[in-house]
Amino acid sequence: MITFRHFLTSIVAVFFALAVGIALGGGPLSNFSEPEPTPVAATEKTADDPARLYAEEFAGAVSPVLTSAKLADRSVAVVTVPGANEEILTALAEEVSAAGGTITGRYSLTEDMVSPDQKALVDTLGAQLMTQQGKTIAADATTYDRIGQLLGVAVATSTPEGDPATDQQNRIIETLVGADLLTLEGSVTKRAPLVLLVLGGEPAEEGGDAILAGLAAGLSRAAGGVVVAGTLADGGEGQVGRLRAEPVSAEVATVDGIDTAAGRVTTVLALARSLSTPGGAFGASGADGPAPLG
After folding, report:
1. CATH number of the domain at 69-283, please?
2. Of the listed ranges 39-43, 82-86, 261-265, 274-278, the one predicted with least confidence
3. Which of 71, 118, 192, 276 has the fewest beta carbons under 10 Å from its own?
């Protein structure tokens, strides 16, 4: 018997594909005009593209049905890579809130944190912090896995309900901020079971992908679940696509398409799923489907 959920799953998949196809120039309108970058404010910027506008509005309309209470009593720490789109971040925060979740804080990695030229600084600081933390951090961790673990210890926890941050954990954040590797507004009062790592500009050609993979792997060792999310352009051969070819993809979920309403819904669903099931590739080019709706 075909249930309503199965029917809705199929419909969402169809409209996700429609939105992505049109945004990338592969949809039914591709013969008429060159595609523009997919915007967040679809209602304002896609008025001249009825099909894409309909796909965006449809995803927004079904979002409450799909994500209602999915993140109830759950908190999310948002970690951003330099170049992350502020409008998209605001829209993601709204989706998390609508799903019943709360955001404990936004932790913005700086250019120095993700620059291969600053690896010596990151390595030295990570080694110092690891000594202060004792056995919390794996001794054989690589430079960026280690700094990711340290950041994870400070902002995340494997406890589903979250944990209060200790003075020792707060000192990690203070040290990273003091070294210009991280920025934070306010202070850390609670560690979250979920981490959303939002990508920004393309990483450096030499070593950039390894830095991202290391940070994601490190965060996953401390959090209950981690989702790495990027735009449509980040899928395929982009940075999300390349991350999916790394071993860390078995530990963190990935989503491409957060510059669409459907992609942001998918991100919330992936966050909810990650608490019980690690990994998974979702979104416009995800091998596991447009969204985890099982």
Report:
1. 3.40.50
2. 39-43
3. 276
DSSP SS3 for 214: helix
pLDDT band at 73; cut points 50, 70, 90: very high
Give me the pLDDT at residue 133, please.
82
Domain ranges in the chain are 69-283
**pLDDT recorded at residue 16:** 56
Look at residues 86, 125, 75, 91 and name the one whose alpha carbon lies nearest to residue 108. 86
Which residues are within 8 A (CB) of 255 and not within 5 positions of it... i.e. 6 or more apart? 227, 228, 229, 230, 240, 263, 266, 267, 270, 282, 283, 286
- Beta strands 182-184 and 102-109 are antiparallel
Looking at residue 57, its amino acid is E
Please tell me the least confidently modeled range out of 36-45, 66-75, 141-150, 184-193: 36-45
* Rounded Cα distance, 285 and 283, in Å: 6
Cβ atoms 57, 44 nearer than 8 A: no
Q: What's the rounded Cα separation, in Å, for the pair 118 and 82?
A: 15
Burial of 208 (0-12, 13-18, 19+ CB in 10 A): middle
